[in-house]
Request: fold
Amino acid sequence: MRLIVILRLSILTITSALLVSGCSSLPADQRSDARDPYETSNRQIFAFNMGVDDAVIEPAAKGYRKLPEGVQTALTNHAQWTSHPSTAVNSLLQGKLENAALATVDFLINGLTLGLADLTDDADDPEREDFGQTLAAWSLPEGSYVVMPLLGPGTTRSHTGFLVDSITNPLGYSGVGGVDVIRVTSAPVSVVTFRGNQFDQINDIKYNATDPYARTRSLYFQYREGQIIDGDLNVSTATDDAFDSFLNEGN
Reply:
């Protein structure tokens, strides 16, 4: 399991370095968004990611949508459950003790069913927290907008947070075979469940937006700002978790 984490870290680090060092940034007056200095390369990677969606993710999401509703709910619950350890850690780092406790209790109780059944249905749900949000709480700058192969959109701060979460997620260091299986499968399960649950909204952007890249970028920044200020923005639920889950789960 640690080898998988190391490989993920290595791939992401190398890809980031190649992207930043090998691509010249656009002059400020040529950018469609001041936060997107690598727009030319970002658009190319976005097109690649959409090709992966065409070939793999959208067909898998169609299959997911054909499953019985109870199975879909169980898989969605499981995907959310696997994120709770990182939420607990990052909530502690941000001083959000109540949210850390909620995430911990939810993870332990629902662990009786591997998260497939929500045994705390009447309780408050923890707000998801990641290390990118922790860095924001520590006032580290956001950095540039960067689209990563397979992992999707983000900023240098949020991608850094993902790397740290990948390494520090307690599920990756349990040494228990069954837990390792959960850790390995959590990303694809999360991607497919999200893609299936938000199928129409994503396809509307993908197929109907005048500029899907620009629309995705705009929604990402709305979504991320809403996360960082704890949901005080009026961001559509259709975008909630969209860019955190697009092949970027398992934090």
In short: Strands lie at 145-148, 152-155.
